[in-house]
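Final report, closing paragraph on structural work. Over the funding period we assembled a curated collection of sequence-structure pairs, and we close with a single example.
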Amino acid sequence: MSSGSTKQKVLEAIEKLPADATLEDAIERLVLLAKIERGLAELDAGQGIDHAEVKRRLLR
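Its predicted structure, as stored:
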């Protein structure tokens, strides 16, 4: 998604939904985008988990 204001990002996400999308579809899309942005911010802050640790946790 392009950089810009939160409002612009929300509008772009909604515009990309199919014409028959439900309100729940829109909410799911916005929640996903919020989680992605939160994750990217955590990575930028050096709070990420390295690949080997993720694999270790998933294979428990």
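The chain has one domain: 6-58. The two ends are 34 Å apart (CA to CA). We thank the funder for supporting this effort.
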